[in-house]
Amino acid sequence: MKLIIGLGNPGNEYANTRHNFGWVMLDTIAKEAGGSWTHKPKFTADVAEYTASGEKVILVKPTTYYNLSGEAVRKIKDFYHCDNDDILVIHDEMALPIGSLRTRRGGSDAGNNGIKSLITHIGPDFARIRIGSGQPVGDNGDTRPAIDHRNHVLSRPAANEAELLAKLQPHVQHIVTDFINDTFFETTYSV
Questions:
Q1: β-strand 55-62 against 87-93: which pairing, if any?
Q2: Less CB within 10 Å around the terminal CB: N or C of the chain?
Q3: Catalytic residue from among 19, 39, 91, 171
């Protein structure tokens, strides 16, 4: 069994924002696999299931809000008796430019509160697909301005940025397939 977790926030006001890139990717994967979303209150998450290569795959969108995602993932992990080796998390990453992704297993939270929550609740050794959401740019052109980044991660990407995100989708699906087949490896990719 594999758990594929997408980080995001519930509610229409957050739909298609940068922080919901994980949910956007999972929605496409669920649609392609013929899975449908069901809200599971005991997990505090929306869940879709399918089978690939003889492996049960559970797609999970925690509804605890992004920064508390670890609470929901812990419930699901415990219920299904999964190891962290069987968990893949898809999330946005400001340190990467829009239209790029990076995979890895383990590591720090790098200032991402959703990942910090996951590490607190299940440990750091799960696989990740980090989807570039780009850095906010300050008035002086500084790409790491000393500002509150909430407005950036809760904003919707511009049309050209959304196109780049859509072009990443097949690559994310390929990486998820590799993960299901136990051939996940660290890579960086840009469209």
A1: unpaired
A2: N
A3: 19
- For residue range 68-124, what is the model confidence (pLDDT) as tens digits? 999 999 999 999 999 999 999 999 998 899 999 999 999 999 989 999 999 999 999
Measured CA distances, 174 to 51, 97, 111, 179 (Å): 15, 20, 27, 9
The pTM of the full predicted model, rounded to 2 decimals, is 0.94
Token couple for 158: 């511009």
What are the residues whose beta carbons fall under 8 Å from the beta carbon of 130, sequence distance 6 or more? Answer: 91, 92, 93, 96, 101, 102, 103, 104
Which domains does the chain possess? 2-190 (3.40.50.1470)
For residue 54, the 8-state DSSP code is T
Active site residue 152: no
